[in-house]
Amino acid sequence: MDKLQAWLSIDIISALLLCYIVFASLYYNRNEKAHSRTFRFGAYMTLGMIICDSVTAWTYTSPAMIVICQILSYMYYVLTIMMAISWLVYSYYQVFEHIEKKTARWLNGAVITGLIDFVLVNVSLVNGMYWSYNAKGEYVRGDLFYIHVILIALIVIEMELMTILYRKKMNRRYALSLMLFPVVPMFGLIAQYFLILPYGFVGIALGMLEVITNIQGRSLDYDYLTGAYNRRKLDFVLEQKVSSAANGKTFSALLIDLDNFKLINDTCGHLVGDQALIDAVRIMQKCLKNKDLVARYGGDEFCIVSEIDNEKALTKLILDIKQEVDNYNKAAERPFKLGFSIGQAIYNPSEKKDFRDFEKLIDERMYIEKERAHQGR
User: Fold this and answer.
1) Same structural domain for residues 67 and 172?
2) 238 and 329: one domain?
3) Cα(223)–Cα(225) distance, rounded to whole angstroms?
4) Contact 232/220 with Cβ under 8 angstroms?
5) Between these two residues, 172 and 353, which has the higher pLDDT value?
6) Which of 171, 219, 286, 298 could lock onto 227 through a cystine, CB 3.0 to 4.6 A?
7) CATH value at residue 302
8) Which residues pair with 257 in a beta bridge?
9) What is the pLDDT of residue 311?
């Protein structure tokens, strides 16, 4: 296989991967959000780059085709800028969900860097500082091409810094995936530099595939606000646990209700209320082991499913959670105090309850605990 065939083959493989990624994004994200649209936009930009790259990979001698290749190369550079900015915008929406005035500097920085590069791309049409075509129709990299590489790298580095600095605002899996997002493309570009083949596109496609698997796809099972599992995932896990308990492997569950959550929303606003829910999940997660999980049961109620199979260990878990709540309330001045009402139970296989009956049991015990707390005030 000659160099051109190898080049085009890699372009085709990358394009097919990106088509799958777009299809998967459309499937996973029927309820459109800004981050989903931005993710697909980045994929579309990369597909456009591959088309431009495939056509210009040929050597043309006719003046008309050289002009066409010059235009496609121009489009390639512009699409590169748009793709890099879309990556940062996608990460921004994953971290902050909405554009906020105090964090908009991350977007502004990327746009300014992109605009500088866009101006230099247009200058390159005249002086060839980034690229040009010789009389044989061969692409020639300009002496100042490295400036383009540096400017694109600055946008990617900015994305990495933003993700690292605000990683605690996200689910840990999401944060790790976002931090790894540009790493595979970077290795692809390094391979492309030394092997002179378009492995950069393969790297970009694999990086986006990692994101679609670990973030976009996981959105089916996760509550977007808190990062906890959602009710769909909870029901699935409980059903599996109940089925396994028939073989003598039992488990436990806790249903947790946030005390006075409506009051927090009414007096402090819904944004503060959202933060209270996020912080509540973090408190629970601090007390759990690797195989345990926390899910949003509905509204301000959460369910913990644990491997614990005895009352002593379950009581200790509840005490640990309540201690973490106390530590949270003492740690800083907040306009609210968190409080948990907890109902708990260890699944008894001999009772042969289905998972719905078990959910009902811990729900009843939680409301008994909540009523007892109200009476004690």
Assistant:
1) yes
2) yes
3) 6
4) yes
5) 353
6) 171
7) 3.30.70.270
8) 301, 341
9) 92
